Fold each of these.
Amino acid sequence: PSADDLNRVLAVAEPWEASLLTVLLCTGARVGEVLKLRWDDVSAHAVQLWTQKRKGGSKQRRLVPLSGRLQAILDEQRPVTGNMGFVFINPVTQAPYSMRQPSMKLMLKRLCEKAGVTPFGFHATRHYFAVSLVKSQKADITDIQQLWGHQRPTTTDIYLRSVAPPTTLIAWPGALKGWFSR
């Protein structure tokens, strides 16, 4: 999606939907990683994401820097779900959202239609995140490999080459240079 399409979708989204999408745009995470994000995984400087994209299904963690924009979203979300363990909780079930739920499965299709933009999926926000960082020269392929949790840089390169660069970018609130050497 273009920056304009993303902004139009964010404008028609319910507050919790906009928060979820913004977390995806700020972290480059898979939607399942954000839906499973617990408050214990949020620190003063980073968000710890867990993926099961490993042989044998073992979980692997990675850290994503906590930008000002991401911090603001989490600060807004904490009073809503802070006592429930997970960052995003379905208010009807009082449990974490699942991609099996129609509200999640159809969310972006419905929002894109409402915003009048070409439909895109959650995974497109992951690509947008990476391409935006590369185009803004705030991260290189190695940084994105670490942020995405890819074992091989060739995997990251394949993903980045498959996406046409956006013409306008959502501003990344903080530079990554040097963050991974901490």
Amino acid sequence: LQPLVESGTLPKTAALTIAGGIAGGFQGYVLSPTLLLKTRVMTNPVFREKMSLAKTTALSLTIGFDVVLNEGLAALMKGANIFALKRVFDWATRFYFSDVFAKLLRSLMGKDLSALESMYADFLGGTASTLATLPLDVLVAKTQDAKKAGVAVSPLKMFLDELQEKG
């Protein structure tokens, strides 16, 4: 994207937002199997029973093997597309909103921002990004839930069902 910025074709802010989104997409695909396993552990009723730390750890470590054994290796990527899309939106909106808040603070203060003021803008940008992408977080968790093991789930149908049921 840098050559597009240098040629004046793409504003630097847009390039940073797009670059953040691309990086987020890669991050989503790389982290997705780990998130799936974490979600399976959190939603598995076995882990609601009282047990020792050693037993909890041992059972947690078997979740990945169980997923692959029962659902196949591809199951580790269940929900990866939604998660990667969520990460694209998360990082792109985080860069975008941080820039928006930085510009807003600069215009209100009439000067360049200090490091602390830039941190405030970034914090506000991250907060706005979190609020904007929260529905995708819910979809990812619902897609990867242990109760849906081996079940193909439509993200759009899940979203509409959730919206109708809970508002």
Amino acid sequence: MNIAQIGVGYWGPNLLRNLVSNTNVKLTTVVDLSEERRQFVESHYPSVQTTDNVEDIINNPEIEAVVISTPVKTHYDLAIKALNAGKHILVEKPMATTTEEVLKIGKISERKNLVAMVGHTFLFNSAVQYVKTLIDAGELGTIRYIYSQRLNLGRIRNDVDALWNLAPHDISIIQYWLDELEPVHVMRNGMDYVQNGIDDVVFMNIEYPGSILANIHVSWLDPHKIRRMTVVGSEKMVVYDDIAENKITIYDKGIDRIAALGQNMDFDDPRSFSFNHRSGDIIIPEIKWVEPLKTEIAHFVDCIINGTKCLTNVTHAAKVVKILEQSS
């Protein structure tokens, strides 16, 4: 299957490397406006053609799929062009800037029977998938709340704020873990310290049905590099730390209510309870590591060739963007 890639900026080289290494596809062409980036491709992958004109791949009937890794504001127009030309698409996160745009992408892809996938790479992370199996199996009990931190003194964007740049990762993971629950309420609080109108730090709160709370803290203006998510259940708690050697730590900890004998010999009196602070084993499971992006690319190809249901399809993409919109 012939594939083309649009954009070889910050994340583009990682996509490029995994596309080239996938034996089920042939990366034929890369598009980038920058001569320097095109030269980068030519020097590392001589067999791949380069161009600065998107129409060269849009009008090429031999190209069956397109990977879009460009600034967020260009995602929608490029996705629509590729779909209208009969090409499957993998679009870097977020798929578009509004829910309406994502749904339009979905309608065209459905009408033309084409795969439209968003690059929420963390859903292909084996550690994230392991937590999902714990939740689905009831190992954690009733989910009470989730909180995440995605922080760094790092790359500052001027096309999107810290929320739209970083939070799609955490929102997509939480949606995946909670079986795509529809939030009850979304609220954000952020501040622009470096560039006017572009928040450098954001705290987002999401309330889900069943009294589940989620808090997302993102910043590119922080002294610590942190990529950590904590899930607190009624039975156990789990920490997923993406940059730690041990990605998953399970804590058999919690607080249990114990009925106490009341003054009237009544165990059912709601006031007659004591509390047991439970602290059991700490488990660090072995997680087999496979590069998530490699798995993501393989999944995209599998969806096209074998008709496998797409994990990060338009429905998932739209819910993530909707939560981002609700917080604006």
